[in-house]
Amino acid sequence: MISLEQIRYFLEIVRCGSLNKAADHLYISQPSLSKQLQHLEKELSCTLLIRRHNGIAPTSQGTLLYEQMSGVLDEFDRTIDGVRHFKETHTLHIGGLGNLITYFLPRYMENLKAGGHNNVTIDTCFSNRELVTGIENGKLDVALLSNAEPQPNIAIIPLMTEPLYAVFPISHPLYQKSNINFLDIVMQERLVLYKDPCTIRDSIRKQCHRMKVTPNIIMELDLTESLLSYVSRGDGITLLPAIVATAIQMPSIAVRKINRIPIYREISVAMKKENITAYLPMFSESL
């Protein structure tokens, strides 16, 4: 039976024009190389090389074998090298609430690339329930949640807790205060808030329920940009999580941390339990 090694040895002998030189290049002994050549010639039932005064040259059959197999062996080597260095490309499907996709996820994009996830799709969802369903049915690999409830079939890992900030126009009296009280805000101010379903809205609602007060909500909107537009006009004030509030770059708007009776929200990442080892390290900076 003809082996790839025998073909490789033959090609090297032709290239070197000498058994001794070929043996040195192949790191085998000259007798072993001669023996392999004899086996190859026996299998092909022909003489492949002839000795001349200036070295070894291929016969007509040897020339044909050399010309045909040189390209084949080169292609074989490229294929083997490609297989060894092949990395399966997997599109990572990430979902999240709008403000988490916009303000939280970007800090981890380098981690995604470092983990070999160069193909990423990102979907914005409006509720934790929608994101959890996406993980359960396999449409999402990873989801970023806010104030998530435990789930029986998927892993939900807390990443960080952040406070809510009061956001208002610089013309508002709150601009002159160093201490912001949540109770004063919900009892005295007109509020422009995210529309339900919204986990930030839930946090505000629960705190108001505990304090037995009813907030004066004058407007409900889907987008952060819309909230800020109405706040800058002086139509009301809003409450936003820290990563959103501290990213605001509008000269007409002020941002203040709520010092008294603060409210917090917890950011978590969700995934199937069997994927924790693969995906959780991408968010390790938060843990």
Tell me the number of helical segments per DSSP (H or I, 4 or more residues long). 12
Overall pLDDT metric: 88
What is the straight-line distance between the termini? 59 Å
Give me the strand/helix succession. Answer: HHHEEHEHHEHEEHEHEHEHEEH
User: For this structure, what is the CATH class of the largest domain?
Assistant: Alpha Beta
CATH superfamily of the largest domain: Periplasmic binding protein-like II
Radius of gyration: 35 Å
The largest β sheet comes out as: 7 strands, mixed
The count of domains is: 3
How much of the sequence lies in strands comes to 15-25%
Helix-strand makeup class: alpha/beta
The share of residues in helices is 40-55%
Q: Would you tell me which CATH topology of the largest domain applies?
A: D-Maltodextrin-Binding Protein, domain 2
Q: Could you state the oligomeric state of the chains shown?
A: single chain
Shape: rod-shaped
Secondary structure tally: strands: 11
Low confidence ranges: none
Organism: Megasphaera cerevisiae DSM 20462
Pfam family, one: LysR_substrate
Keywords: DNA-binding, Transcription, Transcription regulation
Domain HTH lysR-type: 2-59
Summarize the structure.
With 287 residues, the chain is of the alpha/beta class. It is built from twelve helices and eleven strands.
Which SSEs are present, and which pair or pack?
Blueprint (H helix, E strand, L loop, with lengths): L3 H13 L2 H8 L3 H15 L4 E4 L2 E4 L1 H25 L7 E6 H6 L5 H6 L5 E6 L2 H9 L5 E5 L7 E16 L12 H7 L1 E5 L4 H13 L4 E6 L2 H9 L5 E4 H4 L7 E5 L6 E9 L3 H4 L8
Parallel strand pairs: 3-4, 3-5, 7-8
Antiparallel strand pairs: 1-2, 5-11, 6-9, 6-10, 6-11
InterPro entries: LysR_HTH_N, LysR_subst-bd, WH-like_DNA-bd_sf, WH_DNA-bd_sf
GO molecular function: DNA binding; DNA-binding transcription factor activity
Pfam family, one: LysR_substrate
